[in-house]
Amino acid sequence: MKRFAIAMMIIGMATIAAAQTAITIYNNNLGLVKDIRKLDIKKGVATLDFSDVASQIDATSVNFRCLDDNNVQVLEQNFLYDLVSSEALLKRYLGKNIEAVGKDGKNYRGQLMSYDNRNLVLGNAGGEVTVIALDKIADYKFPSLPEGLLLKPTLRWLLDSPSAGAKKCEVSYLTNGISWQSDYVAVVSADDSQLDLSGWVTITNNSGTSYDNAALKLVAGDVHRVTDHARGSGAYNESVPYLAKAAAPQFQEEGFFEYHLYTLARPATINDKEIKQLSLFPSTRTKARKVFIFDATSRNYWYGQNQDKVKIKANLEFENSEKTGLGMPLPK
Question: pLDDT by residue (tens digit) across 313-326?
């Protein structure tokens, strides 16, 4: 029997008041996006384009809902990602007339017969064939943009609607190319008796789109994603040690099944091709103690080799509890 289940989607679909875009980010290069927009839907059977989506979208995970009209039905769904580029334009114009402008200002016009990564071959009505080295070409000129080429990745639906008008719709999907990790900074006092601990969340977005003023959630835990066997399957695992909590942090933590969910208390903009850092919690002072550790299980020690050179490890420990100003589970 074919199975497709995404346990983590339960977490990310929680509604956040007044947010039109929401994104839940997991540790392992995966995000769940929910986008609510007013869309102009036509009566009857018609197509609807939805752009500004992630280029690394998992097309099998897309879900469309018309919130204003439950009678709107999705008949067909397509993810279009044939984007405008010099390569795409040349491919579409094979056998058609184009113009190439040389770096010396000379114009070359004719039918595009072939091209590769070194040369361009043009022919004219008189049978003359010209081979032009690509490194000598400054610009190309095409009569028009070929049909089917897009400026941005686009979802396209074939809908059947009983009425026309602007309707509020919700689109959700999974995308690769976005991840997060946590980083911690500890400033230790001169006598090693105290430390100031602060935490940061680092988000790396290479998903192919930006998320403006989005409600942001982060998930840590043993995340499992079960997909069709034909496409493979994988498990997403992260251990969650207990580290710190501070007064009035930007993120609020809560347990959700075996996961830990961190919600940013304000909207955030995450641009494409961006590494963003957000304060996980402000600097918190707590007591610490130095602990020296000697590893007597060392093979060299028991065999009498370099016994005077066995290193002693020095660790700095602190109690993770509310009475010390800490006490919240934070991701590794």
Answer: 877 777 766 776 77
Q: Are 48 and 156 in contact (CB under 8 A)?
A: yes
Nearest Cα to Cα of residue 203 among 23, 46, 17, 43: 23
pLDDT of residue 101: 92
For residue 149, pLDDT over 90 is answered with no
Alpha helices by DSSP H, listed for the chain, are 9-12, 86-92, 299-302
Phi, psi of 262 (to 5 degrees): -120, 120
The residues, any chain, with a CB within 8 Å of residue 105's CB and separated by 6 or more, are none
> What CA–CA distance (Å, rounded) separates 202 from 188?
23
Half-sphere exposure (Cβ direction) of 177: Cα atoms closer than 13 Å: 20
For residue 169, the tally of other CB atoms under 10 A from its CB is 22
Using CA atoms, how far residue 214 sits from 14, 52, 197, in Å, is: 13, 14, 28
Q: Cα–Cα distance between 298 and 301 in angstroms, integer?
A: 5
User: What span, in angstroms and rounded, lies between the C-alpha atoms of 33 and 45?
Assistant: 27
The two structure tokens encoding residue 330: 């934070």
Residue 254: its H or E element: strand 251-256
Query: What digits encode the pLDDT tens for the residues 199-250?
Result: 889 999 999 999 999 999 998 865 555 544 333 333 333 333 322 333 345 6
Torsion sign, CA atoms 15, 17, 19, 25: negative
- The single residue listed with the structure tokens 């039905």 is 73
HSE (CB half, 13 Å, CA atoms) of 41? 27
Half-sphere exposure of 160 (CA within 13 A, CB side): 5
Tell me whether strands 154-161 and 44-51 are parallel, antiparallel or unpaired. antiparallel
Domain extents in the chain: 30-82+150-175, 86-141, 177-324
Pair of tokens at residue 255:
């347990």
Query: Comparing 15 with 242, which gets the higher pLDDT?
Result: 15
pLDDT of 252 = 64
Q: Which CATH class is domain 86-141?
A: mainly beta
Q: What is the largest CA-CA distance in the chain?
A: 91
